[in-house]
């Protein structure tokens, strides 16, 4: 049988384990487990690191059982790749193997006052003060400010740092460390794509930056070793796959770029998951944006291979708006139902929804924004709200696509898409209508996991997957052509932009900081000096 390569796809809302044929890229088998999120306070989003690992083990074992039922020997799996939700921040004890606090999820807003203070201290109050090194604006989105919060307010983390027991990592680091032995020799590493999302990594030198670490007062000894996206990091120590190398690691959006085979400069893809992420390959030189996009490391497919960069438009809330309509509002009973409701309306009837639950990301980078629904009348019903929610995803994509076209000077003529929401055909048609260009969806939509599997299979010492252009598999796809008048599209987009302005500058401080003693103004208290009164202890 052809060799197989597996991928762990650990996302914000679920974990999956998928097995691919390394010669044809065919998906052979997979298993998925949903992940619980907790919201301890307004704006806070956490996940349990132990639950994350339990879901990884469960997905691996269930998939191996399914392979056995198909009479496929799991020994055919020659490598495992890891792809993950980026920026989500963990600290654990390397001696006990225990997490010292919940994972702080990328969407989390608890660091908003910290970010505002950092920006106020920056020359010219410039949120892009560190962009020349990081490619990123100062934002609640990235790992450094989340790590700073853990160091300041979680006593167990502070004590573990003092006693040299603390390890920091994004989700990929935690998974690889646990799978390669944990406290018994686990490998503490990350790849360049994940490291580039921390604000501690210099995207030019391709390593942790001492000056950035000093800026955030982060001890460098707790950071993982930075490696390429395609090399053997270590070997699985337990489970049905003991002895199999872990040889691929990519942040989820970089993995989707690889899985969509966007290896040429100028190629782009948009992934619709919890958030929405448009990446455009800019080749081996980082391109800085003048229109609110991020400059990020896309991948480095081998120790001796050059790093490739991307421009990225990041939207915080895409699929998460459907989850909100279901779990918080009870407007839909399942994610699939939103398409039926929206189709029944066929229009939002002048209702516009700006789901700025975590502020606004690209192109605004405005943490003070909050969600807003406007244009409501007595006629508005849940069908119209469902339609407005789907439209919101499309309008946000239009904003980042416009910014990318302005930065590159070469407009995209079609949009390659992937991710869970792309199964919603109405959404895909709306997207084509609002962008006024075709939307192209691969028939096999698991491109994020595929990218991680490709990186793992192509690694030196594995060599079961060829990434040379002549060996890349042919991908079948489905096309959605624009079906409305461009003038109507422009009118609706202009109304959306008006709604966005109404959502701006809603929150200027964090009330839950000001009322419970956790507040700290950077202009009055330096890092490392406890605020007065001392913060309430936060137990993990």
Question: Would you kindly provide a written description of the structure presented here, covering whatever features stand out?
Answer:
- The chain is α+β, with helices and mostly antiparallel strands and 540 residues long.
- Helices cover 32% and strands 21% of the residues.
- It contains 16 helices and 23 strands.
- It has helices at residues 49-69, 112-121, 131-134, 143-153, 155-162, 171-179, 192-195, 210-215, 252-259, 319-327, 337-345, 382-408, 425-435, 447-457, 486-503, 511-516, and strands at residues 4-10, 14-21, 27-34, 46-47, 77-84, 89-93, 103-104, 166-170, 189-191, 201-202, 207-208, 225-227, 230-235, 245-251, 268-272, 276-283, 294-299, 308-315, 352-354, 372-374, 415-418, 439-442, 477-480.
- The strands form seven sheets. Strands 17-18-16-15-21-22-23 form a seven-stranded mixed sheet. The chain has a six-stranded mixed sheet with strand order 3-2-1-5-14-13, sandwiched between helices. It has a two-stranded antiparallel sheet with strand order 4-7.
- Helix 13 (425-435) links the parallel strand 21 and strand 22.
- The longest helix has 27 residues, at 382-408.
- The termini are far apart.
- Residues 510-538 have low confidence and may be disordered.
Q: Trace the largest sheet across and list its strands.
A: 17-18-16-15-21-22-23
Helix content: 25-40%
Strand composition percent: 15-25%
Largest sheet: 7 strands, mixed
Backbone structural class = alpha+beta
**Total count of strands:** 23
Task: Give start-end ranges of low-pLDDT stretches.
Answer: 510-538
Radius of gyration: 22 Å
User: What is the count of DSSP helices, taking H or I runs of 4+ residues?
Assistant: 16
Distance between the termini: 47 Å
Shape: globular
Q: Mean pLDDT, rounded to whole units? A: 89
């Amino acid at each position: 049988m052809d060799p197989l390569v597996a991928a762990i796809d650990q996302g914000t809302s679920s974990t999956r384990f998928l097995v691919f044929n390394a010669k044809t890229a065919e998906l052979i088998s997979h298993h998925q487990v949903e992940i619980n999120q907790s919201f301890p306070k307004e704006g806070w989003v956490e996940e349990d690191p132990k639950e994350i690992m339990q879901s990884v083990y469960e997905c691996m074992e269930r998939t191996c059982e399914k392979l056995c039922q198909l009479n496929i020997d799991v020994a055919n799996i020659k490598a495992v790749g890891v792809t993950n939700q980026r920026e989500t921040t963990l600290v654990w004890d390397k001696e006990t193997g225990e997490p010292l606090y919940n994972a702080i999820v990328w969407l989390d807003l608890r660091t908003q006052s910290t970010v505002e203070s950092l920006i106020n201290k920056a020359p010219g109050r410039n949120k892009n003060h560190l962009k020349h090194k990081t490619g990123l604006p100062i934002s609640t989105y990235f790992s450094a400010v989340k790590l700073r919060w853990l160091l300041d307010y979680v006593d167990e983390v502070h004590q573990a740092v003092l006693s040299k027991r603390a390890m920091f990592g994004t989700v990929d680091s935690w998974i690889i460390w646990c799978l390669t032995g944990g406290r018994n020799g686990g490998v503490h590493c990350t790849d360049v794509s994940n490291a580039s999302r921390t604000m501690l990594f210099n995207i030019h030198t391709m390593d942790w930056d001492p000056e950035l670490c000093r800026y955030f007062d982060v001890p460098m000894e707790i950071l993982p070793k930075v490696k390429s996206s395609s090399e053997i990091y270590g070997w699985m120590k337990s489970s049905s796959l003991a002895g199999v190398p872990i040889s691929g690691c990519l942040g989820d959006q970089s993995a989707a770029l690889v899985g969509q085979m966007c290896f040429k400069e100028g190629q782009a893809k948009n992934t619709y998951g919890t958030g929405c992420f448009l990446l455009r390959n800019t080749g081996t030189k980082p391109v800085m944006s003048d229109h609110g996009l991020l400059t990020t490391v896309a991948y480095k497919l081998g120790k001796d291979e050059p790093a490739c960069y991307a421009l990225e438009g990041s939207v915080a809330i895409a699929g998460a708006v459907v989850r909100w309509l279901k779990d918080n509002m009870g407007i839909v009973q399942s994610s699939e139902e939103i398409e039926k409701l929206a189709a029944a309306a066929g229009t939002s009837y002048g209702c516009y929804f700006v789901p700025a639950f975590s502020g606004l990301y690209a192109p605004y980078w405005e943490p003070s924004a909050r969600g807003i629904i406007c244009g409501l009348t007595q006629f508005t019903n849940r069908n119209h709200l469902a339609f407005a929610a789907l439209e919101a995803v499309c309008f946000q994509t239009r904003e980042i696509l416009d910014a990318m076209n302005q930065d590159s000077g070469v407009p995209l003529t079609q949009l390659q898409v992937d991710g869970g929401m792309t199964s919603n055909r109405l959404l895909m048609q709306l997207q084509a209508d609002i962008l006024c260009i075709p939307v192209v969806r691969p028939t096999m939509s698991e491109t994020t996991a595929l990218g991680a599997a490709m990186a793992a299979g192509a690694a030196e010492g594995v060599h079961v997957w060829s990434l040379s252009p002549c060996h890349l598999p042919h991908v079948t796809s489905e096309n959605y052509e624009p079906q409305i008048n461009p003038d109507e599209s422009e009118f609706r987009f202009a109304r959306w932009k008006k709604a966005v302005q109404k959502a701006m500058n809603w929150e200027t401080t964090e009330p839950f900081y000001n009322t419970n003693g956790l507040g700290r103004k950077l202009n009055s208290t330096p890092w490392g000096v406890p605020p007065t009164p001392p913060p309430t202890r936060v137990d993990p």
